[in-house]
Amino acid sequence: QAANGQEALHHIAQKSFDLIILDVGLPDTDGRELCKVMRKQSVRCPIVMLTGHDGDADTILGLDSGANDYITKPFKMAVLLARLRAQLRQHALSEDASFTLGPYTFQPARKIL
Fold it and tell me: What is the pTM for the complete model shown?
């Protein structure tokens, strides 16, 4: 949805997301730095990084920046989708998870709609 880091920050300021897929190589910033900023701005949904940087140090930097998962390219689409579903399941079980659809917000842990 966002072409660069600035657009991404604008979008997250406007609405909440169930999951964010973030590339490390953005045109205007490093995705790891953007992830840190998002976490400082209280983005609590899972952040999954997709990247061609496949070294151990890159993976550690990505995860330490606040990403929930770090997936290197090339990847198999079925595996990516399974990992995204796993992140969504884990987030749904957290105490602060909430999902919004139109005027409705559902908080599974609190059983509130």
Answer: 0.80
Task: Residue 65: give its domain's CATH number.
Answer: 3.40.50.2300
How far apart CA 12 and CA 8 sit, in angstroms, is: 6
**Could you tell me the residue range of the domain that residue 9 belongs to?**
5-110
In this structure, are residues 26 and 5 in contact, taking their beta carbons and an 8 Å threshold? yes
How many domains are contained in the chain?
A: 1
∠ Cα 87 91 94 (to 5°): 150
Strands 20-23 and 47-51: parallel
Those residues with Cβ within 8 angstroms of residue 3's Cβ, 6 or more apart along the chain or in another chain: 27
Res 107 pLDDT > 90: no
Count the Cβ atoms, other than its own, within 10 Å of residue 5: 21
User: Does residue 5 carry a pLDDT above 70?
Assistant: yes
